[in-house]
Q: What sequence folds into this?
């Protein structure tokens, strides 16, 4: 996920949370202001079935909104796994092991894939090159993804994701 998407989703998550709080406050205020009117005029006119229906609808709405917030949060803070000296999400995007910000891949001056790709953190600007468990440089991000993909393929507990 790109940084812009992340910022956008953080904003949406923020707005949804703030809206829920605002709605709760408004409902509370409206209840205080309108309680005498509601109790005397409206409640006797409403059937119990309708009230139960309204209650159920409200509960469902709150549950859906909570699930949406949970989904956005999970997307914002994905599970990261450590491979080759950096962290990776499930879509095989690299992240900084220090502050978990996305890493930018610098492929410049690498026409024959002769030098390792540089990974630069957009947060702390640390530079990383990928190394395997024996300390040997992994040359490009595609090499790393291929290695991860074949490791996943040999592990029957995981469903492999397609290489990118
Ligand atoms: Zn960093």
A:
């Amino acid at each position: 996920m790109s940084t812009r998407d992340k910022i956008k989703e953080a904003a949406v998550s923020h707005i949804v949370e703030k809206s829920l709080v605002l709605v709760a406050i408004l409902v509370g205020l409206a209840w205080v202001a309108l309680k005498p009117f509601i109790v005397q005029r409206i409640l006797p006119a409403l059937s119990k079935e309708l009230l139960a229906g309204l209650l159920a609808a409200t509960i469902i709405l709150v549950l859906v909104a909570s699930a949406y917030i949970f989904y956005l949060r999970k997307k914002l803070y994905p599970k990261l796994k450590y491979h080759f000296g950096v962290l990776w999400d499930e879509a095989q995007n690299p992240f900084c092991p220090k502050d978990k910000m996305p890493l930018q891949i610098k492929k410049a001056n690498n026409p024959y894939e002769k030098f390792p790709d540089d990974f630069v953190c957009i947060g702390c600007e640390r530079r990383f090159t990928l190394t395997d468990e024996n300390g040997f440089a992994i040359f490009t991000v595609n090499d790393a993804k291929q290695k991860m993909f074949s490791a996943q393929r040999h592990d029957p507990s995981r469903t492999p994701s397609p290489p990118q």
